[in-house]
Amino acid sequence: MLYQVNATGTIDPRIEMHYRFHQKIDPSQYPQVHDFYEIMLVTDGKMEMEINHETELAGTGALFLIRPGDVHNRKAVGACSYINLAFPAEVVEKMFRYLDIPEMKQRILGLPRPPRTKLTAGETLLLKARLEKLNLLPLKQPHVICMELRRLMLDVMLQYFLPAFSSPVHMSCPGWLEKLAEKLEHPDYFSCSLEELASMSGCSREHLCRSFKKYLGVSPSAYLNAKRLNYAANLLLHSDQKVIDVAYASGFQSLSRFYHAFKKEFGVSPLQYRKQ
Question: Which range is the signal sequence, renumbered to this chain (predicted)?
């Protein structure tokens, strides 16, 4: 039986949101669907998260944005606790208009799966602590609670969900590719070879190249080269490092190759770029 939940009767109109701390999952309320948005953070343990007939294991730090109409089910895998924050669809639409991205509503709703991400242990603790502070807000001042909840919603959306839409990694791409792309945001991985990328992803070189082309539109080497050059350009503009140090810090193994790639991308040499 599908459990239907509506914003009316669930969300207090005075504060325009609803939040709750859960130490266990009530199976009588699932599977469910609702007409509002819900941010859910797994704070401890693991659960099976089934959304629109697709199941995945969500551990500590898993953060989901469940959309209106998403049929979802939660099943604990041992002890499990989580926090959810619900807010009406119109509040989200107002936020998108405020941010001057009204088209984001359709982009989010058009995804086959809801936006989700994995927080680090530190990020999980910080967000959990911030959510727990909501319990200190004065109940007799709903406008204060409303303001804090809106600020929290905006921060979570801006920090964890919306950046994925400006990233070349589409949120419907395979999970292993998302994780690999996250690693490749760090300069420590800029010097990785194709063999090392294949090893990190757990797939063959051929499958890796096909997936990069399909989901990112470029080859793995072109993807990494763009990361290296962007990082190098920032170092040239915002640091006093020598060009040779910039080259190696950006993952280039050869200074001549760095000069060639940089001039091809920016039309000038690294030194000329720094002086512009």
Answer: none
